[in-house]
Design brief:
This protein is mainly α and about 110 residues long. The chain folds into 2 domains: about 35 residues; about 70 residues, no CATH class. It has 4 helices and no strands. Helix 2 crosses helix 4. The radius of gyration is 25 Å and the shape is rod-shaped.
Amino acid sequence: MQWWFRPQLQLAVIVVHNLRERLNKEELNKEKRKSIPLTKEEWFNFFIFPVNPNSRLNSKSANQIEYDRFKKFGFEKKMEQAGTAQIAGVLFYFFLILIAIIIFQIL
């Protein structure tokens, strides 16, 4: 090999090594995303607003936008927990209304 070719070869090896490290970090981040749970604030938002109250004015609620973001970036556990929180929210409101009807029937 020529003396001037050796530094270029070393630079190419360093670039390839850095590229591999970056790809490995991306793969690790993708795997981490799959298991990250919802934060308390996110869960609370999905629970309190389980359905879109302004469906006529806005076709997508904040929850739907968040859910789409979870799907786009691969947050699988967050998608599952968001669905569970929405079901729990609907059941909460259903039982709250049912209890209110029973109380008003007794009075």
